[in-house]
């Protein structure tokens, strides 16, 4: 099974758990995806790395930088953590958050540590994105852009279509222009599967598009998207419609 060469179907959350890893590998083997981003501070990390090493079909691997859940890899300090020492999304994920110089340095160190952990495994890493899209937030965007440049890694764009708010749309256009100006963009567009299908992007075009999935197996053993089950159903139906599938 295949899809247009200018489409990158990325599996987020690779390394999250055993069931997610199994589903991501299954999707690679069956041609449902051609890219994935790896969590480095979650229980399934080591297994995911081994899957990359053992399976040539698992390719286009990036780092899914996680400042939203689980424990940090560095001594980040209490400002971003809950009482259990895990990331507090209410502190890291506020769109309006701006951080002190010391806090920015601590966050930059953590972002770099997560990337370095992936690189240290001897697997090719070529792009980054983030859990819950935190890299697009005003308080974090510059840290991610600078770090992507330091490591010479491509970076996921913010959504390239308008979703309800013109203010968000123009903000996203602005930060995307900064990514593309530095030639760090992973693709030319980033869309949800639903929007991609709504636009009828069924043919090879000039621009490249990244779509995002979250493969997993449900309790009945069925392939699903653990963020929105309908996404996987719609994606597989789309693939079945393509020539030679």
TrEMBL record:
<dbReference type="InterPro" id="IPR011330">
    <property type="entry name" value="Glyco_hydro/deAcase_b/a-brl"/>
</dbReference>
<keyword id="KW-0460">Magnesium</keyword>
<protein>
    <submittedName>
        <fullName>ChbG/HpnK family deacetylase</fullName>
    </submittedName>
</protein>
<keyword id="KW-0119">Carbohydrate metabolism</keyword>
<keyword id="KW-0479">Metal-binding</keyword>
<dbReference type="InterPro" id="IPR006879">
    <property type="entry name" value="YdjC-like"/>
</dbReference>
<dbReference type="Pfam" id="PF04794">
    <property type="entry name" value="YdjC"/>
</dbReference>
<keyword id="KW-0378">Hydrolase</keyword>
